[in-house]
């Protein structure tokens, strides 16, 4: 003998199934949107020996050229009419720079073959770095 389910009970069961499916879909979408940061090996294969073109948070363009190096090197840069030099290094899986009067380290996301997004304290920087 087969059990009969009332139309109201069937609607409640179907509604729960749809809700559970929506929750599962949202969770899996959130998991796939998690940012994957570059490893030290990937950073060292991407930035040293190249130039980076970007903008400050205020929108001022700059360019920096990074020397080749195993885990540290020199940077020559230009922002507007000013030129400057600094030091780059990697610390774990973070890209770091020391300007003499301050320093910073970032987690780095590869956006595409020539674009990097820097994260400072877990927050993405406004402008991408373009590798050339």
In brief:
Helices cover 25% and strands 42% of the residues. By secondary structure, it is of the alpha+beta class.
Describe this structure in words.
The chain has two helices and nine strands. With 132 residues, the chain is an alpha+beta fold. The chain folds into two domains: 34 residues, no CATH class; 92 residues, Lipocalin, CATH 2.40.128. An eight-stranded antiparallel β-barrel has the order 1-2-3-4-5-6-7-9. A hairpin with a 2-residue loop joins strand 7 and strand 8.
Biggest sheet: strands, sense, closure?
Answer: 8 strands, antiparallel, barrel
Whole-number radius of gyration? 24 Å
Number of strands: 9
CATH class of the largest domain: Mainly Beta
List the quaternary state of the chains: single chain
CATH overall fold name of the largest domain: Lipocalin
- What is the N-to-C succession of helices and strands? HHEEEEEEEEE
Low-pLDDT runs: 17-32
Rounded mean pLDDT score: 84
Total separate domains: 2
Question: Strands across the major sheet, in which order?
Answer: 1-2-3-4-5-6-7-9
Coarse structural class:
alpha+beta
Task: Give the termini separation.
Answer: 73 Å
DSSP summary: helix tally: 2
Beta-strand percentage range:
35-45%
- How does the overall form come out from the CA principal axes? globular
CATH-defined architecture of the largest domain: Beta Barrel
Helix content: 25-40%
